[in-house]
Write a structure and sequence with these properties.
Blueprint lengths: L1 H17 L13 E3 L8 E3 L1 H9 L3 H11 L6 E7 L3 E6 L1 H14 L13 E5 L11 H19 L3 E8 L4 H17 L14 H14 L7 H4 L13 H16 L1 H24 L6 E4 H6 L2 H11 L3 E4 L2 E4 L10 E4 L7 H14 L4 E7 L5 H11 L7 E6 L2 E5 L2 E2 L12 H8 L1 H8 L8 E4 H5 L6 H17 L10 H6 L7 H11 L1 H11 L3 H20 L7 H24 L17
Parallel strand pairs: 5-6, 5-11, 6-7, 11-12, 13-15
Antiparallel strand pairs: 1-2, 2-4, 3-4, 8-9, 9-10, 13-14
Helix pairs in contact: 1-3, 2-3, 4-20, 4-23, 5-16, 5-21, 6-7, 6-9, 6-10, 7-10, 9-10, 12-13, 15-16, 18-22, 18-23, 20-22, 20-23, 21-22, 22-23
């Protein structure tokens, strides 16, 4: 309908231009918005106020001329001027009611759009280092990224969901070293575990796997393990140097055995991550290995492009990228003095790889602590010769978990955290997914586990799901009351839907495509969650005020059509957010309405 009204105004402006009443160098962008109050119609445009300056006319006078030139249409019953010059459009009842027919015809395709047709886009999200299980902090990025992919697909994009596996580099070496030290403890060796090693029972579990498979093959004494190792922080030393020395010793002592421990650690944790995400209804088109960038020539080719562009220089034995030239706060090392490539070198190569795979846009979903990545990745994009607007970096703020009114701690390195699996086991996938996206990803989130498990109207996901289940129950119980639902009779009787709650519900249903489009354009999946809450509230209010299972066949079928249309939209919206739409709920699950 927005497009139709835009076309009406554009045609009116062309007529006024042709008649010489308006003298415009170019037609302005015509903004159409839904009105906040039903007293102001259904849609409004501020085009008259936008034209006031170039035409040097009073906006109300401009609005009068535009209205006089509007073509008659069966969709609009009345047009009025409001305030300083807004043009308000009132839709006909027949036009409003058409949305019910459209939904029942398109079903779950209602709201589908061609906004992103023939455009390839990749969305990388979670990408947590495989150094431990996913915790509840990762869950928010997972829920947001997965929901965003669903929304982008809904509007026509060819979406490629991707997890970047950091299976190369220092943190993975610290993980393998930590597993080896726990393995040595299981073998009976007395080991002083490093302050900066990876802790947690999961490290011991991996160490048990190593020992079960290799026995005492990798057993070495403490003196040999800690030979030439700089002191740890507890001894007045540097904890970072201490773990780096331990890693070097592990590689030297174990030889090929180090790679075997590394492989078991990586496979165990990565498999656990994959399983946890699958249980969380998060799926990927590709698990991209960082190691593949080092084993191939992508890093070398990426650095060669930077070198050719004059964007690399040597300093203190290291190779630097002149990132400040492109707006970053400081230059970035791409190769250390020892010849090892940095994480940033891998980031540049991965960026090049995405463009070489033909993606027109790359979306990165990072945690809020990665804000520094925005200028450096933008700088790398420009230096590689690509448009920096082709990448979008979204920062997901932290999620704080509360239980019994107390905030729970999360630290992967110390091993003190609540895993994503534990959260899903306790509150369920549906509630967890919905709660994570209830607020904008740019805002901090307090996740109340007690509320997520409750069955009341204060729990938004259960409130929405019960609206869906309630509609299913209405249709299911028709036969018990010797009644039927005839969609065609309902269609020809839609004009009987004259109650205020019916009009409000119909208006909300018609807004769904707009909500989906805005969510895709603005990367604001929380707006769908807000919309579903409002739609569920409108339905519950309507159902509590008006009977659906009535003897009047025409009105009954019209109302059933409205209910069924609402059900389709509720189910589709929940699916976009990764939550299910149950057809029935146990008595103890039903919220107090």
């Amino acid at each position: 309908m927005i497009g139709h009204i835009q076309e009406l105004i554009e045609n009116a402006l062309e007529h006024l231009q042709a008649k010489g009443e308006f003298n415009l160098d170019q037609t302005p962008t015509i903004n159409i918005e839904r009105t906040r109050s039903k007293d102001h119609g259904d849609y409004a445009s501020n085009v008259a106020m936008m034209l006031a300056k170039p035409l040097k006319m009073n906006p109300r006078a401009i609005a009068e001329k535009i209205i006089a030139e509007l073509t008659d249409t069966s969709h609009v019953s009345k047009v009025e001027i409001a305030g300083p010059g807004f043009i308000n459009f009132y839709l006909t009842d027949a036009c409003r009611l058409q949305v019910i027919k459209k939904i029942l015809k398109q079903k779950h395709d209602f709201g589908n759009q061609e906004l992103g047709a023939e455009h390839k886009i990749t969305v990388e999200f979670v990408s947590a280092n495989p150094t431990g299980p996913l915790h509840v902090g990762h869950g928010r990025g997972a829920a947001f990224g997965s929901s965003l992919c669903n929304v982008l697909k809904k509007v026509g994009y060819d979406v490629h969901a991707e997890y970047y596996v950091n299976d190369h580099g220092r943190q993975m070496d610290i993980l393998a070293m930590s597993v080896w030290l726990r393995y040595l403890e299981l073998c009976g060796e007395q080991i002083t575990f490093p302050v900066n090693g990876y802790k947690g029972e999961y490290i011991v579990d991996i160490a048990r796997k190593v020992r079960q498979k290799f026995g005492d093959d990798f057993r070495h004494g403490q003196v040999e393990v800690f030979a030439q190792v700089s002191p740890d922080e507890t001894e007045g030393g540097d904890k970072e140097l201490h773990v780096d020395d331990l890693v070097l010793n592990a590689k030297d002592i174990l030889g090929k055995g180090y790679a075997k421990i590394f492989k078991i650690a990586l496979k165990t944790i990565l498999t656990g991550i994959e399983d946890d995400l699958e249980e969380f209804a998060v799926f990927y088109d590709e698990w991209f290995s960082e190691k593949s960038l080092h084993e191939g020539d992508t890093i070398e080719r990426a650095l060669a492009i930077l070198e050719k562009g004059g964007h690399l220089y040597k300093k203190d034995g290291a190779l630097w990228f002149n990132a400040t030239h492109f707006g970053d706060e400081k230059d970035r090392v791409v190769m250390r003095e020892n010849g090892l490539k940095t994480y940033f070198a891998s980031d540049v190569a991965y960026l090049l790889n995405k463009f070489e795979r033909g993606f027109e846009k790359s979306v990165y979903v990072f945690g809020a602590d990665h804000h520094g990545y925005i200028p450096r990745l933008k700088a790398a994009t420009k230096a590689l010769g690509f448009d920096a607007d082709k990448i979008e970096i979204l920062l997901v703020q932290f999620a704080h978990l509360f239980k019994g009114g107390e905030k729970l701690k999360m630290s992967t390195r110390s091993g003190e955290f609540v895993t994503l699996r534990e959260l899903v086991d306790e509150v369920g996938c549906d509630a967890a997914r919905f709660f994570y996206v209830m607020r904008s990803h740019e805002q901090h989130l307090d996740f109340d586990m007690d509320l997520a498990k409750s069955q009341s109207n204060d729990n938004p996901v259960y409130y929405i799901q019960y609206a869906h289940a309630r509609i299913c129950s209405i249709i299911r119980k028709l036969e018990e009351q010797n009644m039927t639902h005839n969609i065609e009779i309902g269609h020809v009787s839609l004009e009987l839907l004259v109650e205020e709650q019916e009009h409000d519900l119909i208006k909300a249903l018609s807004q769904y495509p707009e909500v989906v489009e805005k969510a895709a354009v603005n990367f604001s999946v929380h707006s769908i969650a807000n919309y579903l809450r409002e739609l569920a509230q409108l339905f519950h209010s309507y159902y509590n005020a008006h009977q659906v299972q009535i003897d009047n066949e025409n009105l009954r079928n019209a109302r059933l059509n409205l209910c069924l249309a609402t059900r389709y939209v509720l189910a589709d919206g929940l699916a976009l957010l990764g939550s299910s739409a149950p057809q029935e709920m146990r008595a103890e699950d039903k919220p107090e309405l």
